[in-house]
Prior knowledge:
Helices cover 42% and strands 14% of the residues. By secondary structure, it is an alpha/beta fold. Helix 4 (56-66) packs parallel to helix 12 and helix 9 runs parallel beside helix 10.
Amino acid sequence: MTVNSAGTHNLTSIVDVRCRPPLPEFRQYFEPARLTKQSARSGAPYVSEAFLTGSMDKFFDEMKVAGIASAVVQGRNSPERIMGTKFNAAFIDNALIGDLQSTYPDVFIGFAGIDVSNTVHDAVAETARCLATLHLAGIFIEPGRALGCAPDDERIFPVYEECLRFDAPVNVMTGPFAGPDIESSHPVHIDRLATRFPALKIICGHGCYPYVNEIIAVAYKHRNVFVSPDMYMFAPGGSAYAEAANLLLQDQMLFGSAYPLLPMEYAVRATAALPMSAEAMNSYLRGNAIALLNTSRTERQR
């Protein structure tokens, strides 16, 4: 599947790089009580009906209303953690991600969830299988939860080298709930990682929040670093992300709704109200994702 790159920005062909459909595996992690509470704390005025009811039909309707054409859906291997609040275990098999992508090739772009602790599977072998056999577009890792370490830990280097072999991006879980403490998400670790692997396409999921200015500086320094602030675009201090999208990082910012934490329609509406130029908005909502996600996967499917 190749994301359609035709046309200009009109809020009807958005690529959402962080979206979890309302399937049982995702709803087990985002149980209704926690989702409702966390969504409210994130500024969402309501909770998605599709996710609360587990309806894929309503989910697709919500995508259409929001103007989202394609969504990245990720596997996951996250043990139960208590980090200020309890986070349920989330083990979402990559076979499910492959099935979603093959069943809905014009909607879902799959990223493999890779367990860098090598507990659920061999991380390098699973990366190769998912990229070569399932034709997934990239991988998603959570080093802070799986190993209690930062993304530049040498134990993860073989996984990064496998991504380089396939020219596939890696989405790294960052942000305040990414590890045992927020230091594991400090952008200095992304800086070191990008220096060690200058050709590796690194996506910072949750935008390394709260280190907003620091990750902007790191991405400005390294063209292979992409920032996806998703829900934290609207958090205190998040306005600097929009400033960066207008200026320094117009080609390196990626839109994500963080659905179901934010409803898709609300995330798009709030994004459209940001003080960004039309060119920067188009790049943020779709252009940058198209350029990043199409390249390697198209080659692997030939």
